[in-house]
Amino acid sequence: MYPLAQNSRLGTLEFHKIYEEYDGPKLFSAVNALGLYYLIYWIDELEEGDTWLYVPMSYGRLEKLESATRSLRDAFLYPEENSIFKIYTSFDGEQEELALLTAEELTEEELPPIDYRIECEFTSVEETVPAVTNHEIHISKSGRRGIVKLDSISKILDGWSSLYDEFVRTINISDRLVPVDARPGSFIVRLESNHYEKVSPVIDDFFGILTRSEDIHSTLIEMKIDVDVVKEFLSLVVDSSYDFKLTPLIDGSSPHQLSKSAAERILTELKTSELTYLSSLRVPQADDLKRVFDVVIAKSEYQEVNEFTLGITPRQVAYYLHAARMLGYLDRSNQATSAGMQFGKLDDNQRLKSAAMRFQSSDCGWTWISWASGKTLSDIPDGSGFDFLQDCVPTLNANTARRRSKTLNAWLKLFKPIIE
Hints:
With 420 residues, the protein is an alpha+beta fold. The chain contains 15 helices and 11 strands. The strands form 2 sheets. A 6-stranded antiparallel sheet has the order 1-2-3-4-5-6. It has a 5-stranded antiparallel sheet with strand order 8-9-7-10-11.
């Protein structure tokens, strides 16, 4: 069985979560390199292969399905972009056929049962093993004085959970933290997971980097750890004024401690480093700025945005949605923000000025300005996108940097006259 399609139109897919399994996954979600999610539902077994329905969706909607607040059938009857892929994959993986459908074209036999919902407890992508209590988090007030506040504790634990998810992603497994119990002593909570022994070396390396590395930012990039997730966790420790301690409950492992002052120092270093280094996820790859504007306007008017309305491939649609998110016009679920709603009411000149100011203050824009030793976009040399990416985005190879630079140079050409 080959449940994951290899069709380039969908991008490079990886399993996200498996919800139902019988002789292989039958209902699961997948995600591509651009962060676009698909819900995948098995509908038929033919003589030499299987047929599946793939529906693209935002992470927010997928979470609603996972929490059983919406039925599985709704996902296919009311897709966010009204585009569904019907895909045949042969058992030997040699053959694949893709057809693009709308919700209206699905037959009753192809739809999930009425009111069928994803169970709250879904199967990990990794082979299921018993969860074991394997580490505890100790949160204490700096100086040992004062009462720890519940809202601050929950935020720090959420930050640790996100950081743990990032560690798991770097070694290509699925695992999650589950609280077991808590006890007095400032605040101590025990946590369990299925694969902590695999994640533990990554955690050790991470805390080792924080205490010993001369260049924390570039080392995290080399480890493929999202620096934004690390910054968020550090910010939570700093803002709470608490100290964080992780104590493994397995043999041969040492505890790791992070004080508020240390978190503050590391956070400052990371922010300073970001003036010269940039994550590739922060770099747009949507050459046609007018089309980016069209996406924002359509979203502000609650219209569909897909390959048909834009006249491009699904992968390119993802690029333009990403660009609109990067400029702050769309949120994580690709819905218009307040800035996006306002954008739809502006004239063409005002839209260009709005986008120029937003790009200038974005991570990508500001890093480019800093690289050019400037103060605004007008200080950046024309056509310098490739040199900038080579110097400041070390994770991009030369060919990818050259493609991405076309977007940057095209945007700069339009923005500079507005800024000057």
